[in-house]
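Our preliminary data section would be incomplete without showing what the modeling component actually yields. Below, a chain of 1005 amino acids is followed by its predicted structure, encoded as tokens that our downstream tools consume directly.
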Amino acid sequence: MVKPPTARSTIPGAGRLGLVEPTAPEGLAALGWVNTESVELLWSLSRAANADLALRTLVRLRDGLGDDWAELDSALRGDSALRGRLLGVIGASSAFADHLVANPSGWRLLRGDKGLPSRKELTDELLAAVEAEPDGSASPTNLVYRAGVTGPAAVAALRKTYRDQLMVLAAADLAAVVENEPVLPYQTVGHQLSDMADAALTAALAVAVATIYPDGPCPARLAVIAMGKCGARELNYVSDVDVVFVAEPSDASTSRLAGELMRVGSSAFFEVDAALRPEGKRGELVRTLESHVAYYKRWAKTWEFQALLKARPATGDFELGKRYVDALNPMVWTASERDDFVTDLQAMRRRVEEMVPPELREREIKLGRGSLRDVEFAVQLLQLVHGRADESLRVQSTIDALTALAAGGYVGRDDAANLTASYEFLRLIEHRLQLQKLKRTHTLPPADDEEGLRWLARAAHMRPDGRTDSLGVLNAEVKRNALRIRRLHAKLFYRPLLESVARLDKDAIRLSPDAATRQLAALGYTAPENALGHLKALTGGASRKGRIQALLLPTLLEWLSDTPDPDAGLLAYRRLSDAMVDADWYLRVLRDEGAVAQRLMIVLGSSAYIPDLLIKAPDVLRLFADGPTGPRLLDNDPDEVARGILSSSARYDDPARAVAAARSLRRHELARVASADVLGMLDVPQVCRALSSVWAAVLGAALAAVIRASEAERGEPAPASFAVIGMGRLGGGELGYGSDADVLFVCEPLPGQDEVRAVKWANTIADRVRKLLGAPSTDPPLEVDTGLRPEGRNGPVVRTLASYQAYYRQWAQAWEVQALLRAHTVAGDADLGLRFLHMIDEIRYPEGGVSETAVREIRRIKARVDSERLPRGADPATHTKLGRGGLADIEWTVQLIQLRHADEVPALHNTSTLETLDAIGAAELMSETDIELLREAWLTATKARNALVLVRGKPSDQLPGPGRVLSAVAQVAGWNSADAGEFLDNYLRVTRRAKAVVERVFGGE
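Predicted structure:
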């Protein structure tokens, strides 16, 4: 304990007193505090949160008191309790300093040994300020008074009286900063502030009664229900007071009464907010009890039942208020059974976090990460989940609820104690912030405001610890408590679950199976019994791996609960962990690389496509870590991957082994690309390029292996050169996860070789390549499609270059010419492939453009595609490939422009849709607005189509209706909003606008 200096001590200089203002010595002299008899006064002054502010206020008080200053000076010298209260409050709050200067005699409220006033004493004093007497309608349960003073005079009297009582509490709360007075417990402060609010509402109601019913008793029964922090009796110094009104009867008169109460209360005390009423600010201000019950039975959302956790009668008709609470309370404790319980709470939690601007998240102690709301949200969720079966949890304040949760074994006792300490610390900081200027704030001063931070630190009882000044202590404590809240926020939900299925701690209190199942269901698991089984399997036994899993799972499960499908994610994590049981590095990487674990949970809980790939290509997990320049998932270059596939497969003479090696590297690359895609690290063109490159490389590896094997079997070189021409999306470098590889096979007999034998050999090669790649596998399929060859599926699979040339010059139909626009060499003999492309250039880029007859034929074929190829039952508005404004619409429009203008615009000699759109814009063949609409639609549809495959694990073109799958597709597609309906609306809007361009440009309107 710090002792004040003795009377023999030397009076320190102003700087040593914490006084930095140049006028401080003059102020001390003006007070007469410059002699040895003033040492104790100076010592107390030096401990004020802002000694300069306290000194300035004392000088102003001396001027205001005049001859009465001597009384205050004498009292301060003889009464250490008064010194603590007065110097504590005027050193921590400029608002109360101004209040005292405006009402100098108010210092007498701070003297004496009396405790804090009771709720009745507070009510009596406020009622006396407006000369209120019991109304004729008053009864033992109906606290209705009629004020003798109304209008501005009533508001002024109430404001001063309330501010006086608020100052008394603040002074008692801050006395320990200056003197060795007892520290007021946090709950005492919250209870007192809530009692003051109840008293204030009672007085405001008295003024309202006298105003609305000046000629007689109040004819209605009105109950004022406190909600939020006031309802829980944990109110702040400066806070809105949330209320709900219940009346019998409910009519225009009672609505005016409630409205006048709110007006008076908001003018005199604090903002009275009734937005938590049914239907919010759009709903009726006052309802009958029957109307309230009907609303909550039929219309209320989950968050409204969560708000009712705090409801209690504050003033007015207490009997009616009790009936309100009794009627609605049973609904609160069954809210967790609602179908939308999880999604509503998750959406509300996201909204809370999104409300905080990014630049304030580290300073926001109410809504940011590791904040007060994290504690309150977690505690309330656990209450709602377990309170339906355990009535001991049906308490209102956060601290009482934590105590009950610990007593019931839903939270560890140490965890509850630590969370309580961190919560009370942040509430103390919040109170001190608000006291400075009596403003509603929850934001720490910026880092460069050292004066403001130091003022806050000293007001919060923080002193230098010998190594760190008060400012350093504050910063360290804020960070420590925020981190502890974040850690315990996850542990609060998941540690008890793990203790219920694993032997973690012989002294741990374990949840019952039913309680654990309820908790998992509330966290978003649709099959909680299965999830509990996975946890048991992961943490079972006494092995070191089980212990590490038990340490990891609380955080992993929290991350999983934020994904679209936590059930599938947890199952996938169990399968992956089982497959990696002999890999020592696996759990070590998850434990030591936080980014790896978090990214893995996002991927597993979002995609059915990726888990099997990761199980077979586990080394990709190492790429989830961050490297020197960013995520290692982005380190691979598609061209280098392709070269690696070709070189790796070239080591094997057996085509099956060569293709197996290529498949292995493809699997690794697909896992990498898909994971980076789900995590939002790759854009659409990057994904398409990577997928096209790896497909072409595997095709090239298979072709080379089959040719090598054929030459070994024949004992002589191949009789022909062989090239694979990519068509469709493969040729355009725009493959998606569910795309087949459209190709043409072309051969050229080598000099001296018989053409018939060479073509027969080439057909054998093509057949073996297709069979090798199409062999059954658990990997994503490798289907080679030759349906775009001349004469379609009735034509030969392989043709010579001359045969292709003869066919295209004489027989090519409009659709075949259009298909050639995307032809590009992807594998085999590069020279032959190049000669093929040069040969078809005169076909696909005809001199003068295609004829009008060909244009009409293309339009006719497109009309048939639209009417015949859309799958039965598909929604044309949301089919990503063939639907309105979908991929086919965009691509056919671009290709028609190419057919018409490529001869005169060489830049249109391009197989990529997006690059061709850029060339069309550069040539001014379409307006930039139309170009942008088509580009956005193509990117949107491609992203959605890829997301469908990633989410479902199989090819799909049809967007689902509202529900979990659409939400998952929206999230994987990178939609920022939590509302999947907005994603769908955006898709419909983008494609609708693109369709208008298509109809005008392609349709010739």
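The domain at 852-1001 is CATH 1.20.120.330 (Four Helix Bundle (Hemerythrin (Met), subunit A)). The chain has 41 helices and 15 strands. Preliminary results of this kind motivate Aim 1 of the renewal.
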